[in-house]
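Contributing new complexes? Match this layout with flavin-adenine dinucleotide.
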Amino acid sequence: MNQIPPAPSLREGALVTADQNTLTADVLIIGSGMGGGTLAWALKDTGLDVLIVERGQFLPREPENSQPDHVFIKRRYVTSRPWYDVNTGQAFQPGVYYWVGGNTKMYGACLPRFRRSDFTEVTHHDGVSPAWPFSYDDLEPSYSQAEQLFQVHGSVDEDPTEPPHSTDYPYPPLPHEPAVERFANMLYLQGLHPFHMPCGMQLPSLADRIADTTADGSPSATGNKSDAENRAVRPALESPTVRLLLGAYVRTLHTSPDGHTITFAETEVGDRTVRIEAKTFVVSGGAVNSAALLLRSVSDQHPNGLGNSSGLLGRNYMVHNSTFFLAVDPRRRNDTAWQKTLGLNDWYEAGPETPYPLGNLQMLGKLRAPMVKAARPWAPLWALKMVTDRSLDIYLSTEDLPRPDNRVTVDGDKIMISWKPDNLVPHQEFVKRISQTVRKAGYPIVLSERMGIATNSHMCGTAVAGKDPSISVLDPDCRSHDVSNLFVVDSSFFPSSAALNPALTIAANALRVAPTMAAST
Ligand SMILES: Cc1cc2nc3c(=O)[nH]c(=O)nc-3n(C[C@H](O)[C@H](O)[C@H](O)COP(=O)(O)OP(=O)(O)OC[C@H]3O[C@@H](n4cnc5c(N)ncnc54)[C@H](O)[C@@H]3O)c2cc1C
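Output block (do not edit by hand):
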């Protein structure tokens, strides 16, 4: 890319400086990612005084955004501290990024809706995936609105599992490039139903595709990726009623003496502590950080963490079972620039060919040698390049199930993760079937690796929503059962993980709950 377009400038007064010891707002949103950013956008015309508090800064648009050695080897954009694996005692670097826009700065912008069945009880190999406290039809209008906001490209009538849409996608699907088109044709020939994966990327020309070829796992310098910063937070900040405080880490939430309402957020800004008072407090830090903040906020009234009378806060942590899968034909180069155009849901639901759901296939962004180097440090870059120049790069995900023992806990400021993957049998079956499928499609070499504890990009479930306060943390509108002015608006509320990318559902849910929140503030 020759010239990097500058980010749009901000309204004067949009950024708050914390030079007083106390700040006030009607609604305080903690975290500016998919959940918090979209919620701020949804509240921008309500007249409420909205303050977004974000521990990170704006991610700079710079040439290094699209240089895999800087992103993956020098880890230029890693801002989070290690978390701890309780089972091994080892520290690990989680896949979370503290920037305005949160993890969407690094995401691949695949933006599918969950399937209708994902909202209902479904039997899996290892147990039952529970029903949600609202249906697909309840969320459907908000999905449409989220697709407009995030400029999703897609097609409603290719995938047999696609649920009904009340509006078309705002943009037609991104066309496949030749290697992916060829793969799609080989799948059709096997009687399968590949479809164009819904995607929040504006890529009208090949030059645009080349400029953003690394934008899955890396930031985009072009502004063409629909991340939460450029499609939600910046547009929200155009409103005079929405403000943003940067570099501000909310450590704890404090309540009234009876414990029924939050009164202020104790927030670290540099070396100072600022008190932020609000009528409504929204925690949108991502499924692990949201749970951690509430677990840190202990008091006599909430001895096990704020809003944790169910004992479920931090539990039911889910991340998907996922595998990176390379299909290699040594005779053929893969020159695809934007590879994430294809999806396959033929085994997403149980049917004649499978007694239980297996999952979703989609494409990764085109892998480059430095991206693989971190996982294969012993391999020379030239050898990795030979492989990645010829590989079709695929991502397989299978639903994991909510287990109380898979959980987030805190030890002071440390984040501890207890995680044992479950529902692995269908994932292994899925990998096996896809291996057979790609071999039949002409790719004789198959390399695959199941992701471990550090690949938590699809994390969810740590503050489950439900109607019964004894078995859920939040009500169906994502309000705490215990604390009347506390909402959690990110993937923490998910009762199940589905087997699809979560971000559009997080955004749609933020749009769904915003009117209730506005009315009660
Ligand atoms: C490499 C990668 C690829 C991905 N690809 C896709 C994809 O293609 N499609 C998809 O649907 N999903 C994808 N995801 C996942 C997607 O990005 C997340 O599901 C989504 O961003 C989660 O939204 P969230 O609001 O829960 O959290 P986030 O978007 O992570 O936002 C949380 C924000 O809260 C801030 N924060 C946290 N704690 C505090 C605190 N105490 N005080 C102040 N601020 C705080 C963080 O800095 C962050 O900005 C991907 C993720 C990664 C890492």
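Reviewers usually confirm one structural detail per submission. For this one: The chain has a mean pLDDT of 96.
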